[in-house]
Specification:
Number of strands: 6
Number of domains: 1
Shape: elongated
CATH class: Mainly Beta
Structural class: alpha+beta
CATH architecture: Beta Barrel
Radius of gyration: 18 Å
Distance between the termini: 17 Å
Largest sheet: 6 strands, antiparallel, barrel
Number of helices: 1
């Protein structure tokens, strides 16, 4: 029988600081249906196997997806109209989004683990 006194939780303070802000220089912009911006450095976590990409802002542009592209990190933005290559911008991640995704991944892993523990022979 499971010990109900032990409660598995994830607390926001256990995650990396979701309110990180810094400045970075735009090094490249690729225009298209969904513009891609590359930065001198980044706080954004790209999509990975079990990790949802961060969201946030590069100056006035909203970052809607982040992906690794070889050695580069591509920041997909809603619009690049106000961004200029060589210009420095404030960059910030959406801390609430990062927290919600971390909790969702934690809960999915916990449910999967609980199912395996209840399955005979697993």
């Amino acid at each position: 029988m499971r010990d109900t006194r032990m409660v598995d939780t994830i607390r926001q303070e256990e995650l990396p600081d979701p309110d990180l802000r810094t400045f970075a220089t735009v090094t490249a912009i690729e225009l298209g249906e969904r513009p891609i911006v590359r930065l001198s450095h980044t706080l954004f976590l790209p999509e990975a196997q079990c990790q949802t990409a961060d969201r946030g802002w590069i100056g006035p542009a909203q970052v809607v997806h982040v992906a690794r592209n070889g050695g580069d990190i591509d920041h997909y933005v809603d619009t690049a109209d106000s961004l200029v290559v060589g210009q420095q911008y404030s960059i910030s991640i959406d801390g609430q989004w990062r927290y919600e995704q971390a909790v969702a991944q934690y809960l999915a892993a916990k449910i999967f683990r609980d199912i395996l523990q209840r399955t005979p022979g697993a």
